[in-house]
Each structure stands twice: as structure tokens, then as C-alpha cells.
Amino acid sequence: MEEQVEKLGTIVSIWAHPDDETYLAGGIMAAAAELGQRVVCVSATEGEHGTDDPVAWPPERLGRTRRWEAAAAMAVLGVADHRFLGYPDGGMAALDPEEPVARIAALLVDVAPDTVLTFGPDGGTFHPDHQTISAWVGAAWDRAGRPGRLLHATMTAEHLETWGERYEQWRVFMTDERPVGVAPDDLAVDLRLTGAALDRKIAALLAMHTQVAPAVALLGIDDYRALNAGEAFIEAP
């Protein structure tokens, strides 16, 4: 695992909502931080609408709580530089992309990463915010002169075969479309977490109680751990 992570160098990890980064790259970021590599994590929104009960969790309350949860998760992962961009949860696709693209490009020029991590064009779950941040980061990476490698989170064919039915029960996909599983040989990063590395990632996820509690209740903690033991990325096309 160390060899894969060392090759990533300085990492900028850019996502739509706090918890995206921990689900998809928590193990990578924690390992990189432990190895002394610079890790900058960016959340485009506070995830203030990420609830099925907006009466109990109005946006101001949920956004504030998710910031606290994210701070706890980043502390577990050892990521000291976590930035929020302040865009509206659920409303990113409606924004003029010029300002956010320019802002992200400036960040990439400033940090000069060796690796940029984000969603692929399908957003994993076809969430419009996920797809929008993927497009913004791709455009910003171009504008910044393509610093380092741009890697997109993906699911392997094996992962989908094992967990696809549970994803349907969990209702994670936002449309009738479904991701296409990637073959192992096509992966740029294929991280399998075990032992303390997996314990740390799960501890970080559990810090985000408002978001993960339903999944843990549905899957049980053993399956939840197994589901989140892999992190896979491909080179951006």
C-alpha cells in the first residue's frame, strides 16, 4: 500500500460533500499524511441538505453539524488542511461554472499537486453535485496547466458484483443509470485496506454520524467495513 500512495506525492482531494472524500479516498489520504506527504482536501458544499428529515435537520443545523463531523473525520485521518468552498448543496449544477472553475484552478496552481482526486463523470452515484464537481475539476485542471495526474474514483467489476444488490437496497443511485465496473488492469490506484488502516477509515466514517448511521444499520458493521475496504481510481480520459 505504501508504494502506491508514495507515488501520488502531494494530493489535492476535491469532492462535493463532506463524507465523499472519506468514503472514496480516506485510506489514501490517511496513508499519505502518515508518510509525510501534503494532503489538501476540499469540500464544495457543507452537505446541508443531506437528510431525509429536513424538519429535524434544517440546513443551517445540518451544515454546522456536518462541519463538526468532517473536522472529527479529518483528525482521525491526519488531514490538517480541509477547505470548504461554500457552494449550495444540491444546487451546484445550476451555477455558472466560471467562478468555481477559476477558483479551483487557482488552488491547483497554488498547491501544485502531483495528484488530483475527484469523481469521474458519472459521479459514482449519478448525483448532480458529484457530476458537477467532476466537470469543474476537469476544467480547472486544464486551466491550471494540468498539474500532476487527474484520477477519477471508480468501482471495480468485482466490487459491483459483490455489493451491487446492497447498493440497490441502500438506494444510492440517483437515476436509472448504473456505473460500469472497471477491470483491475485498468486501475491507476487499487488500494485494499486491512487492519489498522481499515480501522482508521471506519473510525473516520463513523464520526460522520448523520450520514453513515442509516448505512451501518442496513448493512451491519461487518459488511459496512468490507464494503469500504477498497479504494479504486482510474486516470482521467
Automatic annotation (TrEMBL):
One of its GO terms (molecular function) is hydrolase activity. It holds the Pfam family PIG-L. Its EC number is 3.5.1.-. Keywords: Hydrolase, Zinc. Gene3D superfamilies: LmbE-like. InterPro entries: GlcNAc_PI_deacetylase-related, LmbE-like_dom_sf. This is PIG-L deacetylase family protein. The lineage of its organism: Bacteria, Bacillati, Actinomycetota, Actinomycetes, Micromonosporales.
